[in-house]
Specification:
There is one protein chain. The protein is mainly α. The radius of gyration is 25 Å and the shape is globular. The chain has two domains: 9-26 and 186-360, no CATH class; 91-180, no CATH class. The protein has 19 helices and no strands.
Length: 361
């Protein structure tokens, strides 16, 4: 099989549907009746003397709907331009999200089978957020080996956990730090992001094992693979809330309240977010280059952007895991039938029987 296998156009379209699903805002269950329905209602149930006034109201509602549609289009264009500008500034994103090069070096250290526990301990102690997160986890109810007395010293916490459990815990804490933002909405988008990463991690464990890589590395690789979607997700939600607040404040100065009413029903634009999510590998690579990181993860992201059959084993495993996630998401939540998804299993060389068993499970 050729190592320069190009990606089919149909596969690009399917992956675009997958990312559109990932970027959809919360549904609004308030279908607006059409003008024909309202006119029929007027003629059937209203008296003849009320018809003229009712028809004017319908016309006004129609005009308001058209104005709101134009407002949504204008907001979407402004949102798309500003989101592209923000994602092209890695240093600004690093300050907002708190992603440090030391955290990437620490994840890279965990992949070393002969890891240095002293160096790992120093990395944790030098990261204030990670130290606090580790203490909170050990003292919380979700930790199965919780002590009767709480721990407050990082060194004691590391000694209590041990090196193996610490290596299993750190990727989850780092992913939680990257994806969580207290001052932003954590609604449907956040749940989808966590579900996507959990599914990717479970599929990566299988394919990494097929490539001869230990299953514990799946947490680290899945965390890195999710860096691009996390960047897009957090920048998009933060920008949406900021722009919507600014526009609402400006609309309150208008003499009529129609503009403010239209802005109140605005939702996060799906199309620009989906387009950037589809380029998440390039966004993550530019971010790592922008913050001055030059380790092995940068080479891995570069390999993931190439035709996957010529990549290193970890890149091939992550590509196949991502292909499975796209297949299962489309077949289970987006498309009503599985017909037409064979291009995914064919391009990523995934046995058809495997994804069908996973889908039924």
């Amino acid at each position: 099989m050729s190592t320069q296998l190009p990606k089919p156009r149909l596969l690009d379209q399917l992956e675009q549907q997958f990312w559109q699903y990932q970027s959809l805002s919360e549904p609004i269950h308030a279908p607006s009746p059409t003008m024909e329905d309202e006119v029929a209602f007027v003629w059937r149930y209203k008296l003849a003397v009320e018809r003229a006034a009712e028809f004017k109201r319908i016309q006004k509602n129609q005009q308001r709907s058209e104005q709101q549609q134009k407002l949504r289009q204008f907001f979407c264009r402004a949102f798309e331009a500003e989101l592209g500008r923000l994602l092209a500034q890695p240093e600004g994103a690093r300050k907002v999200m708190g992603i440090e090069v030391a955290q990437l070096d620490m994840l890279e250290l965990l992949l070393d089978p002969d890891g240095d526990v002293r160096r790992l301990t120093r990395c944790i102690e030098l990261d204030p957020w990670l130290s606090q997160a580790l203490i909170r986890h050990i003292n919380s109810n979700r930790f199965e080996f919780r002590r009767a007395s709480e721990l407050h010293d990082v060194q004691l916490a590391i000694n209590y956990l041990g090196y193996e459990k610490l290596c299993q815990l750190i990727p989850s804490l780092v992913y939680e730090h990257w994806s969580w933002s207290p001052d932003q909405s954590q609604g449907l988008h956040q749940r989808k992001l966590w579900r996507w990463c959990r599914l990717l991690k479970s599929r990566a464990e299988y394919w990494l094992g097929e490539e001869g890589i230990g299953g514990d590395s799946a947490r680290i690789y899945a965390c890195l693979f999710a860096l691009g979607p996390i960047l897009v997700h957090r920048q998009a939600t933060h920008l949406y809330q900021r722009m919507r607040g600014e526009w609402m404040n400006q609309a309150r100065l208008e003499p009529e309240g129609d503009l403010s009413e239209g802005l109140r029903h605005l939702r996060l634009p799906c199309e620009p977010v989906a387009e950037h999510l589809q380029r998440h590998l390039a966004i993550a690579r530019r971010f790592l280059e922008g913050v001055g990181y030059s380790g092995r993860f940068l080479r891995l992201l570069t390999a993931l952007e190439q035709p996957w059959m010529q990549s290193e084993p970890a890149a091939r495993a992550l590509s196949r895991a991502f292909g499975e996630v796209v297949y299962l998401t489309l077949s289970g939540r987006v498309m009503k039938q599985e017909d037409g998804l064979e291009v995914i299993t064919g391009y990523y060389q995934i046995p058809e029987a495997r994804v069908r068993v996973l889908h039924r499970g």
